[in-house]
């Protein structure tokens, strides 16, 4: 065909080759009802629209429940910790005498803990993170990490990028006991707590007309720590009569919870519920979330766990369909984790 | 390692098993493009949606006939085209029986500027065309069928198809102010 004289057919052919138009939603409903005739529920036929509405509501409720369950998990831990502690206290009474001899070792431990305190300060925390992120590159311990490193830019060390301090909104209030007994001198009771890495914990001494002295040097009733490694903290409190007692707070860092939770659905309709799709997790050092559509086009990318997708592509609302997420993150143990899966955009 | 990107073949196979999620996925993947096809065959959006709907029902019910040879898009597009033609079928004889539009059609003042020609304008022009022209032009120029095939599809002769196409193009040129375009074809 002569290109100089443009053919009108060619003109239209080129224009319509990739032309797309959006049909009404009713078309799919009609098609669906034809190809999957009806929904039956306990033998009762449910009209299509009602069923869709129900299913959508169920999906929403489930996704909400999933999110809330996750958020509440940490809080749920507290009552169990409390009961454990109560049991330990009774045990402690029995072994009290033997512990008397351990005072010296306790003091040794106290010194140790004081040294560890430095780590809690933000400056050294940043250093640790830098260190860990760099070594994450060199130590490809994960089977797939070498290939995945190339996929996720965030793994590369970038010192300009502000390293996030893990912030945990759900602060674990670790209250050991409400001890009604009078203080036994020189006894050490142990309280063990399992917390997530990077979680902010408040260790709380028991209430009373007491003076407190922590192994960290603090003299307040409560101290705040950020759990980065399993550690023990000691609180010695003294009552008016000069009797004192030492409590050990053993913080066990649960690496299992160094994980990013990625929901399977979100609904960006500005109703305040699940409007943003983002990962949730604590103690994440490096993070990347990439969301692609079905054709593999990247629709969202973030290196900040607090930043999520608002369900828009270049400012325009994205289609309510499913997408895929790829998340990669490095935890404090230099472990690179990757997660991938499907998410549904609901409107 | 499982590739999270689902291939077309996987989608089709899952649809064959009746998995509704994949049926929807297939619909979502092609509904836009196919609605674009259907729209070209009808003046009203509603009719085009009817064609799209019927077409997709056919796609799903005849999916087992797809042999994974050639492009699936081509297959689905052919279904959309034949479905669209079927909706025209009962009126088809009127389209070519009397030369409704002939040469005497009146052009409105809304002829368009070629430089600013937008695909939406082109769509409007095509949909506004007399049906006889519209079907032949779509089938020949855009879908790429030969005149004898079109003759069979529309139950007209190949020559009628040719002359309808010529008239359709003349109509379009006038409508789009493109008199100079394509004129070499009609010097014969």
Spell out the key features of this protein:
heterodimer, A: 347 residues, alpha+beta, 5-stranded mixed beta sheet, 4-stranded mixed beta sheet, 6 helices, 27% strand, disordered N terminus, B: 188 residues, mainly alpha, 0% strand, disordered C terminus
Structural description of this entry:
The complex is a heterodimer of chains A (347) and B (188). Chain A is an alpha+beta fold. Chain A contains 6 helices and 16 strands. In chain A, the strands form 5 sheets. A 5-stranded mixed sheet of chain A has the order 10-16-15-11-12. Chain A has a 4-stranded mixed sheet with strand order 4-9-8-6. A 3-stranded mixed sheet of chain A has the order 3-5-7. Chain A is elongated, with a radius of gyration of 28 Å. In chain A, 27% of the residues are buried. Helices cover 64% and strands 0% of the residues of chain B. The longest helix of chain B has 26 residues. The radius of gyration of chain B is 19 Å and the shape is elongated. At the A-B interface, helix 1, helix 2, strand 15 and strand 16 of A face helix 2, helix 3, helix 5, helix 6 and helix 8 of B.
Structural class of chain B: mainly alpha
Summarize model confidence as the mean pLDDT of chain B: 81
Instruction: Describe the largest sheet of chain A.
Output: 5 strands, mixed
Shape of chain B: elongated
Along the chain, the helix and strand elements of chain A come as HHEEHHHHEEEEEEEEEEEEEE
For the largest interface in this structure, which chains are involved and how many residues does each contribute? A-B, 40 and 45 residues
Strand order of the largest sheet of chain A: 10-16-15-11-12
Count every beta strand of chain B, where a strand is a DSSP E run of 2 or more residues.
0
Helix content of chain B: 55-70%
How many angstroms separate the termini of chain A? 48 Å
| Total strands of chain A | 16
Overall shape of chain A: it is elongated
Strand content of chain A: 25-35%
How far from one another are the termini of chain B? 63 Å
